[in-house]
Design goal:
By secondary structure, the chain is α/β, with parallel strands linked by helices. The protein has helices spanning 2-11, 25-36, 39-46, 50-64, 80-100, 121-126, 128-138, 160-165, 210-215, 230-237, 251-260, 306-321; strands spanning 69-72, 75-78, 114-119, 143-148, 171-174, 183-198, 217-221, 243-248, 264-268, 280-284, 291-299. α2 packs across α3.
Amino acid sequence: MIIIGTMHAMDNRRPPRSLLSLDLNLLKALDALFQARHITRAGQSIGLSQPAMSHALGRLRATFEDELFLRGPNGLVPTARCQALAASVRQALDLVQQAVAEPAAFDPAETRRHFRVGMNDLVSTTLLPDLVRALREQAPLVSLEVTHLPRATSPGQGGLPELLDDGKIDLAIGQIGPLPARLRVERLVEEPQVCVLAAGHEAAAKPFDLAAFAGLNHVKVSSYPTRKGWIDEALEERGLRRHVAVVVPHFTAALQLVVATDLIATLPLSTTRALGPKQLAIRPLPLPPRMHSLDLCWLQAMDSDPGLAWLRATIARIVAAMPVIEA
């Protein structure tokens, strides 16, 4: 009988108090009363009349099932329960105030922001050194984390949207394909795709047409080797095929192979900046022009982030200042 009675009493207990049942405006009233120890002055500090403040105190007493404030010779005296609540309520109100306040101005010279940027090896080679120099000069306390960004997404695998959604990167730099509307894309520059051979390659001294191009041994850059590339599709439309001798995932690896072998690669023109004309022979691609873009991408929800806006502007200035390479 005792056990059953105890269980019955437990079943009828009031559920724990939660934020769902609490008017958060009452916390502001509680804090004002605790600071002023006077109903009228507390109401004046938060814009409430004396009757409204008395009503708020009544609701507070009912909510917390405690008198909270007792009348004393010099004003209101907080109860032990009120004393225990006051510090936590003050801290909670401060946090809410910080959350809704206008964001502080971004100062690159003072910030200790940690930026995470996705980029592929081409961007890492051509842009990253200038970006790091700019950060060291303008934002010396900033830290930068670079994540490898594949040029394509394999079917069934997460890609750029997921990296941004999950907060693994703040920005992406590279050739950005079609994306959901929640992402922003800013085109920084476009450049042609060119054919790259070693400077001493025998084909570099001969007429370079589509037949000559297709007849050479190629190094193909692809994150997913089984996927047919646009060059192969363009050649098949013209009744031609090429021999792909090597497939690599990185532009820079293809460039090194070209210099060391008789292979040819089709690469964005800026790739050649890493080695220069003494080691390379650059020829126009004998196919309809195919431009390679450099884009910035970020979440639309982060448009108002002043730190990311500053970083995007810094990257755009660096790209705009890069010397033009002649094909």
